[in-house]
Amino acid sequence: MRASDSLIDHIFETMRTIAVVGFSNNPSRPSHYVAAYLQGHGYRIVPVNPGLEGQEILGETVYKDLASIPFPVDMVDIFRTSEAAGAVTDEAIAIGAKVVWMQQGVINEEAARRAEAAGLSVVMDRCSKMELGRRR
């Protein structure tokens, strides 16, 4: 399952609020610098990490899970293992997200099928920072 370029273009044109699951407070970690990059290009990022809950990082409050975010999220960007992506995808479906994006190296076909069956768009095994960079 490979997301088309037109789908990715549509995602970046229409999504504004992106929950980053597996967010790290370490600026050298991919989840942190990808979130900062997306934020720098006008997207609202929402850090999600239970170990950092309540902290403010990149000017945003960190939430313990997707269900704790008190406002709508358009896209869920997953920086977790392929196995963990299944549960995160189910949370994304439950909160009404429109897109599940599994970062480079994260592939969960079953979760992708569940998300698509629920009406979400899915991108797997691609880096949101690299894809946005290709479009700028």
Q: What's the story with the biggest beta sheet? A: 5 strands, parallel
Largest sheet strand order? 2-1-5-6-7
Order of helices and strands: HEHEEEEHEHEH
Instruction: Work out the radius of gyration.
Output: 13 Å
End-to-end Cα distance, whole Å, is 25 Å
| Residue windows where pLDDT falls under 50 for at least 5 positions | none
The percent range for helix content is 25-40%
Calculate the mean pLDDT score and round it.
96
| Structural shape | globular
Walk me through this protein's architecture.
The protein is of the alpha/beta class. The protein has 5 helices and 7 strands, in the order H-E-H-E-E-E-E-H-E-H-E-H. The strands form 2 sheets. The protein has a 5-stranded parallel sheet, with helices on both faces. Strands 3-4 form a two-stranded antiparallel sheet. Helix 3 packs parallel to helix 4 (109-117). The chain is globular. The mean pLDDT is 96.
